[in-house]
Write a structure and sequence with these properties.
The chain contains 13 helices and three strands, in the order H-E-E-H-H-H-H-H-E-H-H-H-H-H-H-H. The protein has helices at about 5-15, 35-55, 55-65, 75-85, 85-90, 95-100, 115-120, 125-145, 145-155, 160-170, 180-200, 210, 215-220, and strands spanning about 20, 30, 115. A hairpin with a 6-residue loop joins strand 1 and strand 2. The longest helix has 21 residues, at about 35-55. The model has no long low-confidence stretch (mean pLDDT about 90).
Length: about 220
């Protein structure tokens, strides 16, 4: 894997927001932890959205992230069962799914991260955490599209309140959502994935075992 999609999403978001910056006059360039947390959270939300709105792409992304999975000892259904974060998410109805999923990475967001470290994100110890939370987001959207879409609706309704907080963290985002509904959001996410494929590399075909999973069969049958 050269640069995975979640790393591309996070790094592109940070660069669009004007990072890296210096922590002091003579300090190294890097990213404030809060800004990294905002980009990371946006990435996991995107993963949930792709799972809910673009199941085929979600399976391709899971194939990229978990390319070393042993499909001789597990089925697609067992893979999704192991990765599904629905139980933990249901225990925290006060949090959006993506906010809960990024909690294991919270300590990372409390310090200034050197840019050189982020450039090596695929090999850094942070990388596997990023892949897992992205995978969980994709899986949650795939397996629970109605709950995921409801959470996205709630996020959009509350964006006016949440947006300023992300802006203060360093992300250059609008104070109102640029997409009017979930369908528009899903279309935007697909454009991000296609941009990744153009700039970095095409996503691999989805593993047949994932496509044979009962939940994916049901999603694809619905179109």
């Amino acid at each position: 894997m050269s640069v995975s999609f979640p790393v591309y999403f996070v790094m592109s978001s940070l660069q669009a927001a004007g990072w890296p910056r210096k922590s002091s006059l003579f300090g190294p360039k890097g990213v404030a932890g809060e800004a990294l947390g905002g980009a990371w959270t946006a990435m996991v939300q995107a993963a949930v959205g792709l799972g809910a709105g673009r199941p085929s792409l979600a399976c391709q992304l899971l194939t990229q992230l978990f390319g070393h999975a042993d499909w001789t000892s597990q089925s697609g259904d067992s893979f999704f069962e192991a990765l599904d974060p629905a139980t933990a998410i249901s225990q925290r109805p006060d949090l959006a799914p993506w906010l809960l999923l990024v909690q294991p990475a919270t300590p990372i967001f409390q310090v200034f991260i050197p840019w050189n470290r982020l450039l090596q994100l695929e090999a850094d110890e942070i990388g596997p955490i990023l892949w897992v939370v992205c995978g969980k987001g994709l899986t949650y959207g795939l397996l629970h599209p109605d709950h995921a879409k409801s959470a996205l609706d709630n996020e959009r309704r509350g964006f006016v309140a949440v947006g300023p907080e992300w802006i203060r963290a360093g992300l250059q985002i609008p104070s109102a959502p640029p997409w009017p509904d979930n369908d528009a959001y899903f279309a935007w996410l697909e454009q991000i994935v296609r941009a990744y494929e153009t700039v970095v590399e095409p996503l691999p075909p989805a593993y047949p075992e994932l496509l044979r999973a009962s939940v994916v069969q049901a999603r694809l049958a619905l179109g």
